[in-house]
Amino acid sequence: MKVSIVGATGYSGLELFRLLSTHREVEIAGLYSQSFKGENIGELYPYMQKIYNGDLRGFHAEKIMATSDCVFLATPSGVSKEIANPFIQANFPVIDLSGDFRLKNPKTYEKWYQKSAPKSEWLQQATYGLADLSPHYASHLIANPGCYATATLLGLAPLIQNDWVQPDSVIVDAKSGLSGAGKMNTKATHYVEANENMSVYKVNQHQHIPEVMQQLKIWNKKMQPIQFSTSLIPVTRGIMATIYAKPNKKITQQELFELYEFYYEKMAFIRVQPKNCFPDLRQVVGSNYCDIGLTYNEETGMIMIVSVIDNLLKGAAGQAVQNMNLFYQFNQSEGLRLSPVYL
Amino acid sequence: MKVSIVGATGYSGLELFRLLSTHREVEIAGLYSQSFKGENIGELYPYMQKIYNGDLRGFHAEKIMATSDCVFLATPSGVSKEIANPFIQANFPVIDLSGDFRLKNPKTYEKWYQKSAPKSEWLQQATYGLADLSPHYASHLIANPGCYATATLLGLAPLIQNDWVQPDSVIVDAKSGLSGAGKMNTKATHYVEANENMSVYKVNQHQHIPEVMQQLKIWNKKMQPIQFSTSLIPVTRGIMATIYAKPNKKITQQELFELYEFYYEKMAFIRVQPKNCFPDLRQVVGSNYCDIGLTYNEETGMIMIVSVIDNLLKGAAGQAVQNMNLFYQFNQSEGLRLSPVYL
Amino acid sequence: MKVSIVGATGYSGLELFRLLSTHREVEIAGLYSQSFKGENIGELYPYMQKIYNGDLRGFHAEKIMATSDCVFLATPSGVSKEIANPFIQANFPVIDLSGDFRLKNPKTYEKWYQKSAPKSEWLQQATYGLADLSPHYASHLIANPGCYATATLLGLAPLIQNDWVQPDSVIVDAKSGLSGAGKMNTKATHYVEANENMSVYKVNQHQHIPEVMQQLKIWNKKMQPIQFSTSLIPVTRGIMATIYAKPNKKITQQELFELYEFYYEKMAFIRVQPKNCFPDLRQVVGSNYCDIGLTYNEETGMIMIVSVIDNLLKGAAGQAVQNMNLFYQFNQSEGLRLSPVYL
Amino acid sequence: MKVSIVGATGYSGLELFRLLSTHREVEIAGLYSQSFKGENIGELYPYMQKIYNGDLRGFHAEKIMATSDCVFLATPSGVSKEIANPFIQANFPVIDLSGDFRLKNPKTYEKWYQKSAPKSEWLQQATYGLADLSPHYASHLIANPGCYATATLLGLAPLIQNDWVQPDSVIVDAKSGLSGAGKMNTKATHYVEANENMSVYKVNQHQHIPEVMQQLKIWNKKMQPIQFSTSLIPVTRGIMATIYAKPNKKITQQELFELYEFYYEKMAFIRVQPKNCFPDLRQVVGSNYCDIGLTYNEETGMIMIVSVIDNLLKGAAGQAVQNMNLFYQFNQSEGLRLSPVYL
Predict the structure, then answer these.
(1) What pTM value is reported for the model?
(2) What's the domain count of chain C?
(3) Is the pLDDT confidence value at A134 over 90?
(4) Residue at B330 is within a domain
(5) What is the least distance, in Å, from the CA of B59 to any CA of chain C?
(6) Which residues contact A262 (CB under 8 A, 6 or more apart)?
(7) Which parts of chain D sit beneath pLDDT 50?
(8) Residue C175 and residue D192: Cβ atoms within 8 Å?
(9) D343: distance to nearest CA of chain B, Å?
């Protein structure tokens, strides 16, 4: 099978390339980049020398459909919706890593993204591909979830689906590495600004909030708005979502642990930590794992969940490849058997 | 006035030296270190060459009292209580940076520190020196607050003292740099372990919890146990305490902001941030400031407070010097007019 | 084929495991660790959960020989020589990552390692496995080169073998990440010590100097002692060796470039950079590549070479796997098709 | 005395403010910034809240001369020469931190800076203010040396002035933190690019080379071009210049050490390290010190010098204040009694 990557020079695009180039079922048909079309990727990114010798091509939907069987759009929100048209019309498989096709409600999109929404029918048609929890893929248009949303939803799923928490008690205090801020050169991403620092940003305003809420409400209609704080910590990769919630009934530490253990037991990429153990960030970096630790504090009556992922893998390119595997019914781990780069 | 520092080679001791050596009202009489007695500090710490040429002395209470007017104990919890005896007997001024004299209840001390408690009468006698909020110093024994406790209490004081929050709703998600873990060489402080990582530790078990609770209950008897999470982020210095709480009445963003503005207006070392601004960690590092940002989310009904300090200054040596200034009625900023080292 | 790893919980051992677990020609028969025998590796290193479920075994040479075809000794210098005996006696294939079998002269070993030397006949028998330049493996005992030595020798080989430089003019200014200092908790590896710092250590005294000199003299008898400085920079992985030398004849930039281009053209893991381009450290991290940039300064008459590797891969585990591939005549890239983790 | 700072929002300008605000002999008359004129510095840089409440002013030479006694130009190379005119005409004291007035030869300026040169007579008139070695200040125009140049020249002065080295043997391998790259948001300064990385840049092309050569030739006419490599390491502050040279006569380790000890004995800001000790970067960061370690390798016949400074202090703002102190015959340490921020 042949695949193409659009937006191949962004962080997610580069990771997609890295994963797909070791995938036994696919071959990379082309790398597309509007900003660097015609340039040699090995000259642009010296680490790619002797690995990929092709040139970057300017976007061309027909050429992509003629030469490949599936396309990954690793393009920014706002761009994907502009270029996806010919693929959707042709019912050509698209895995989109932007936020453009994640929300069902066009008005919600417009509110949070400050852009005009994609066609409503496309939004209805798209599958929200939270890969570990989405066994069926009806559509050819897969919206890959956001990085913060993935960590948060995987951390909350057992609690919310089983209706264990007070619906207005959920707080997410999430931390991300700098690769989450993208490759634009901004004040926030300047080394001198980010190094030896931690900063809170977009408090209650992050664009991943609506997709989290949309999914939580699908799982449990009672859910109320959650408190959602996002921050930058001085690492390149990784997201840690620390989640607090109050149970809506009497529970024990042991019951909570068993809820998660049982729920995630057979899922290859989710690793519930032993009792009283919390994952650190690095134990998933470089891999497609989501590791989850949890505790119930009897004194305060508070549940605490810590969910960690690599934002570029499980939070972007890894989950996208997993979505492709599921869509084509390949082994879901193909191309993703990555041991974390712990040191 | 002459002062001595015991435990001068720990992180807090070194910072005390740095601050006191520019203080116009005091002279450093001696640096004491049991582990390095007899050694030259410039050889041990080359950055001190041409700054301090004296040798480190072995602890000797009588010598300290004979040569100085005040002693700083920058010794670990468990050590301070063992060596403080002669000073307390003699009513000699002690500023202790350990946790040994912070708690009033000996049983609480024994539970959280896993050590036998200091004499109960000493605990009663000690002043808990939360410097910005403690104008009167009745005792010669000042217990300098813990770093996490300082960031948390300064972040919560206006809310709790004015009884604005539901007493069982407080959550503190606190992050600290590695200097907070001390200078012991452990797995957790190994560069390869801490770098590019974030880890949660001592969840609901940190020994600063009881001093926070003790103070919150002094301010407001209704207070219930708080959820308190501590974590390490890969920076050398700094603590960010992110605090969540639910109001016990209808409030607005503006009222919340005014509460803090008014409360902290005249305090030299507390800087409430403009509306919708949160402090980043580095804007206080290298200084004695505590910067506080806040917001009220009308949709979730949640207050969020971000309080940042330099754990070695406002969270240790800086506050200790401020306590000395207040005790001796010097200008409280003397020795502490430090602009943050923002870059 | 089956392989065992002794010293599996050190940094090199963990990396060996990561590489070998994706190698199509081998199966891992056992992980051995004296310090952690009997422990579950997933509990010890949570990042290994769901990846390897076996327990760590105490060292047992007979068991290893009974269950595997080849053993990797990822043990410290001084330990390998103590445990290698039964394997060498049995002519059982050993790939040793320590410094114990790299030097031919026992006296040189004793001078630089401050330990009694292994048997002289073993030293004579061992192959110094500088993998990219060692096509023939006569011996069952392979001494994997040191990390600094690998970066330096690959950087110097074309110049020295072709006798282009003044034999007393070579200076190596090498920088290493902290993983090079090993997993011992020391003052030098404490985060607060290493972070935001750079330090020079073992100047002209590093134990990799004699293996570099031994190899340089094999290549060119005229070679004189080289100046060799080693330092730590605040990164986890990576070595950059900056090499200066004066040519012994008139050369041009173009000739120098062609010398390297031609020499390394067909070598899969060595990437000579385009003219006027120097590699940065990260462009090889996570891979088995050695990237080399070079320039000749006509004004000063000085050649400058920059050679970068991942110290744990090309400088340890990666090269060890490459040596195994060469020894068994597998494809030399098997298990090593790793794209650098550039971001 | 009153001083103004032009370019107050750059890294050097901010540091100048920090130093001068504690200087007992001066008062800050105004902060000037063309890019942020009219803005409040506390809003722009929250760390400055409650420290400086004035607004930033647009550049206005007459206003500066009317309100102050001395001006610091913390403006980029190419800008200083454009705005310095009225000050120079009026013989008003200028301390310029850019490269514009450091070189005597206009053609050299044009070659290295790729800009038209300042008036030749201004270049002749300017004092190159290598503060520790420049006791006499004839001119009102002081050119503050570059950061790399300062570390290199202080490291080499005793050797070159005493004619100890072969004039074509000097190699400087210098490393700098990211603040040296300035506050522009570029690919090189993006956190994801710089973190966990080290990169070589401007090899033999750095614009500090000509001022080093100019000074070395003043000290010793025989000096030939030096090899000068510059690189970025992932720290915010600090420069380490590692210098290699061959002696032109028989020397011993002891003689070399005594040469430096004697030369720098009385200089407050230069600290020659004890025998066999090299300074690490952090032991000067936050201070105006230059620490120098040295060794002579009898086997290779090579001298090695390691010189470390804080690039924003001794390499910029600190030396500028020292130059002001010397010019006005204040105590040269006033405003500069900063203990390094070692942790």
Answers:
(1) 0.97
(2) 2
(3) no
(4) no
(5) 24
(6) none
(7) none
(8) no
(9) 7
